[in-house]
Specification:
- The chain has about 120 residues and is mainly α.
- The chain is built from six helices and three strands.
- Strands 1-3-2 form a three-stranded antiparallel sheet.
- A hairpin with a 6-residue loop joins strand 2 and strand 3.
- It is globular and about 35 Å long.
- It starts with 12 loop residues before the first helix and ends with a helix.
- About 25% of the residues are buried.
């Protein structure tokens, strides 16, 4: 069995994400936003804990577009669909994968599940 820190019976991201839906997205940014949107849908209660995730010099997530615009130049903030959260989208795919891994860790996914989520990108 897969080791997971999620409670049995709780919905998780793997119940929602499917490869067909990911394939319809335009590029990495579309997939990135879709994955984050689904993570918000499953974990809306604790999703604000992602606001603590940031880079050395950069804010990654915020509650307002202006916060991300103020935090750096050309951050290209986009709203995470169906949520009140915003994310920078101008980082490279490797950085986006790292961000997804950190989001998964913060939301209680095991390391192996976090890697699977990252690989959706």
């Amino acid at each position: 069995p897969v080791e997971s820190s999620l409670v049995a019976g709780e919905q998780n991201i793997f119940d929602l994400i499917n490869k067909e839906e990911l394939a319809t997205q335009k590029g990495a940014v579309g997939r990135f936003l879709l994955i984050l949107s689904n993570m918000h849908r499953v974990h809306s209660q604790q999703f604000d804990s992602i606001l603590d995730i940031q880079g050395r010099d950069r804010l990654y997530f915020a509650n307002a577009e202006l916060d991300l615009l103020a935090a750096g130049s050309s951050t290209k903030p986009k709203q995470i669909p169906n949520s009140e959260f915003w994310v920078i989208t101008n980082s490279n795919t490797t950085r986006k994968k790292r961000m997804l891994t950190e989001v998964a860790n913060v939301l209680g996914y095991s390391t192996s599940d976090a890697e699977k989520i990252r690989d959706f990108l």
